[in-house]
């Protein structure tokens, strides 16, 4: 397989809670309104990403995996996931609150949906003043059955909220109640799964005058208690990586580039993804260079030995398994 910095065509999603930041701040080209998500790299059925540049332009993600297997994914990922891409990479813009929701773990998802579970993380790229997220229950001893009786009068007593700002990062394991709040633009890394159990949708109605379906019984079964709010405690250091999340499903570091840098990846048995969350950088593999700007994503296949970076000031999320 020819290793080079691979870009994929974003898959944009209209959402009832979406806004304009994906186009206005991240420069996503679209005529859609209320765009809430940009799926940067997806192996989700009916939403398979397509290469947008270079030798493999026009090739689907699935075809890359079928043709190149371990050279693309890494042998350990082939052993665990077969020919399924294991991560879903997104940017999200919440003009209004997302529904309060929870995702099943692998065991529940396999039993109920023949799917992987959904553990995820967020990196806050931009936020309005006083923007918040929902993370967990306010009281971990609270009877989970209260989730069946949430309304506008008691919602603030049930869910824990956190004020957020640019640069904050949160880990959301499967089973944790959560929601991105109005005014937040975020990068999201998650397991390949589109299973969401809505707990509360702020009593809003869609264009047809109907409320969206809730999944209360499933949510009660999926919900778990967590002591930590999941916020990453990290220190940025120029031209070095700092770890944000290291879990069974993915590792995410933040890499602040302020000069020419070369990083070795031949010790990894995995593809590596770079999400640009600030600034612009040049990414070079085998003398093939792509520019990645804020809101863009690049993947280098598992047979990549080293990557060169050049920027006067950029921040990249570095993601691998």
UniProtKB/TrEMBL annotation:
Residue stretches making up the Phosphomannose isomerase type I catalytic domain: 9-115
Database matches in Gene3D superfamilies: Jelly Rolls (2.60.120.10)
Keyword Metal-binding: yes
GO MF annotation terms: isomerase activity
UniProt keyword annotations, A-Z: Isomerase, Metal-binding, Zinc
Domain annotation Mannose-6-phosphate isomerase cupin: ranges: 242-312
PANTHER family: FRUCTOKINASE, TRANSCRIPTIONAL REPRESSOR MPRA
This protein's name: Phosphohexomutase
Native organism: Winogradskyella litoriviva
